[in-house]
Design brief:
Blueprint (H helix, E strand, L loop, with lengths): L4 E8 L2 E2 L1 H17 L3 E7 L2 H4 L10 E6 L9 H11 L3 E5 L2 H14 L3 E5 L1 E5 L2 E8 L4 E5 L9 E5 L15 E4 L21 H4 L6 E5 L9 H11 L2 E4 L1 H5 L20 E5 L5 H7 L4 E6 L12 E4 L2 H20 L1
Parallel strand pairs: 1-3, 1-5, 3-4, 4-11, 5-10, 6-10, 12-13, 12-14, 14-15, 15-16
Antiparallel strand pairs: 1-2, 7-8, 8-9
Helix pairs in contact: 3-4, 6-9
């Protein structure tokens, strides 16, 4: 039905990516507004067996594009065929490398409206309406397709826009798409690959993040932050200033031009808190800031603002956490 909401659901090593669970919940919410149902386009290793489990997060149906561990773009042709058959109102794609590849192929082949990366979406007057930050986060733009535009509208969705909700008792009805004809997409191969550090891979899923900015002073300044993150079982992040300086990989950058995170606890050390960084972490449940400057902007929205030298405060905090863990285990 044209009221249905499609979403891309990537699987790897037999499990759905977090983005698949987020979009399942988001698509279900939008489907309630449109009068349709949430439909997964599942692909990757384990998709055939795991697609029905997306029902717990809101998907009513799941269309398996393929169950092999191969480049996501090779599923583009079969995804195009599935979208044409579905005649849905909208399709949600995660703003991940694989999601961007497939979304671009769908838009280019189907010539449909595209929006994103978006931070919010809703159905208004029977069409998809999206919100995205522009001008370095200073302006929120609302967009929707023009009257008479073809469907589905495709929205590239930032991580943590939707929070996965598991509560449905049913399973998604699973169907398998027939193999698509040979295409340029299906002939794509991986020329070279490199394993990323586990903390880099899982930054968007971390429940605790310790982030550093210009105030750490250099690459070595991230050492105490890594120690604190280790003590808390969290991950290390950074502002753009620290990444631009080459002190830390760009994969760990948080903000308008980096990753959007939603941890339970966010500790910002030596970060001023400019709007460009804030838009990447403002959904954190609790924010602790450590900065020498009492007038740093991050103090305006931090739950706890500690004014002082991070190189004294962070090691002392790490030591105290280890001490308390030792006491609790005694």
């Amino acid at each position: 039905m044209r009221n249905d909401i499609l979403f891309l659901a990537e699987f790897s090593a037999g499990k759905p990516a977090r983005s698949a669970l987020e979009l399942a919940t988001g698509a279900a919410d939008l489907a309630l507004q449109s009068g349709g149902v949430a439909v997964a386009l599942a692909y990757g290793s384990g998709a055939a067996d795991g697609a029905s489990g997306l029902g717990a997060h809101g998907a009513r149906r799941a269309i398996v594009l393929g169950d092999e561990d191969r480049p996501a773009i090779t599923y583009a042709a079969v995804a195009v065929a599935a979208v044409r058959d579905a005649d849905a109102l909208a399709l949600l794609a995660p703003a991940t490398p694989n999601g961007r590849d497939l979304a671009a192929a769908l838009v280019g082949t189907l010539h449909v409206p595209a929006f994103g990366p978006v931070r919010a979406a809703r159905v208004t007057d029977g069409v998809l309406e999206t919100e995205q930050a522009t001008l370095q986060g200073n302006v929120i733009t609302t967009a929707r397709p023009t009257d008479g535009a073809p469907t589905p509208s495709i929205a590239l969705v930032l991580a943590n826009t939707f929070t996965p909700v598991e509560g449905n008792t049913g399973s998604a009805e699973v169907t398998q798409t027939p193999d698509a004809a040979e295409s340029a997409f299906s002939r794509a191969t991986v020329a070279e690959s490199h394993e990323a550090d586990a903390k880099v891979v899982n930054l968007e899923e971390a429940t605790v993040i310790v982030a550093g900015g210009r105030g750490v002073g250099g690459e070595g300044g991230f050492g105490p932050l890594r120690d604190l993150a280790g003590a808390l079982g969290g991950a290390v992040g950074a502002s753009r200033a620290a990444a631009d300086a080459g002190w830390i990989p760009y994969q760990l950058q948080i903000g308008q031009t980096g990753k959007v995170v939603k941890p339970a606890l966010y500790i910002g050390a030596g970060i001023s808190g400019a709007i460009q960084h804030r838009v990447g972490m403002q959904s954190a449940e609790h924010v602790i800031a450590i900065n020498r400057d009492p007038d740093a902007p991050i103090g305006d929205f931090a739950d706890l603002f500690v004014v002082g030298d991070l190189f004294q405060i962070v090691p002392a905090l790490t030591e105290e956490i280890h001490r308390r863990k030792g006491t609790e285990g005694a």
